[in-house]
Specification:
Residues 99-315 form the HDOD domain. The chain has 19 helices and no strands. It is an all-alpha fold. The chain starts with 11 loop residues before the first helix and ends in a 10-residue tail after the last helix. The relative contact order is 0.16.
Length: 380
Amino acid sequence: MAISVAGGVRPGKVIEIEHRLYKQLIVGKQKSDSMFDELDAELEDDANKLAIEREAVLERLAKQIEAKQVFERVSEQLIKTVSNAVNHRLASADAVIKSAGVNESQLLMLELLQGSNIDINRLRPLIANESWLVRDLLNIVNSTSFRHRRPKGSDVKLTDLKLVLNFIGIENIKLLIPHFCLRNWLPSGHANLLWTTRKLWRYSMVSAIAAQALGKLHEKDSIFVYICTLLSQLGPSVVLKNSTLLFEETWGLWLGEANNSRDKELYDAVLVTEFPSQKVYELVIEHGDRLNWQLLQQLNFSDSPMTSVMAELDNNLSYKDLSENASIVARANCYAKVVLLEEMKLINPQEKRIMFDYYELSEQELIRLKGQNYRKLNII
């Protein structure tokens, strides 16, 4: 099959393949390891126990026609209630931002990390104001793998932020802060969404590492395209986070009321109602790309080059219309989609060729990308 639409208006087949990846990330039942460090590792037992408990109750309900009908009615109503709440939440950018944990200071940090002259004195107080970021950086510098880089006799646990940043080094800081920002925006601490979060995390990091490699290959600001590629998952992340928060809030309320009513059938029906991943996937497809730039605008970054790239990726119908930086982000995301779909055995060689042809990935780029380690950041 000859491909004659390279770079033009995105063909239906490319859209279908890209949506296939997101559907597997959000709706698919595959489990995934976290990467770089353990993400929500303590939730694995909870997630597995919840799945086993739901399976057992569902098996019992299937044998009881009346109980099954109760389950179907209650589950449908619960999911409808959650869906309405999520739609209402997504209609308000302020409400989305508040619950997603993204703020102006974080975006300013990402801007300050770009370019060659980093003002650490402006950056440090911004880092200090984000307790989760300070914690993550402390964990890095005090980890066993990092301690061997410190001078002899410095086995004491570091807690001073200035010393921590000095030991980590500015080149590593450029990689780590965007990395930790995205992880903070993703839903965490939720057994219902553990595997989805891990899969989206892996996709995000494969994309970002690929973008950094392409940026270096083409002598562009590799940190800028790395940051933009991570930002291209901001919208999907906040849709997932808001959906998860509203589902668990509603689910917990209904479960408590069913328990108080001492209605076993009602309680079981609520218990086995799963996170509405199909509906949330549809919301991600509908709102994700738009939120990437609208949230940045809402946080007073309308004039930022980061916002321009996010808007390009959402609004341009043709790959050929993208700027150089936006096209690198698009190619990196394309490569990551193909890598993950190949791991899942959900893409054939012809479809892979269609993706690479449309996004005009050259042989030189593919050789460079195949040589990267996508399991961890290349910390110097």
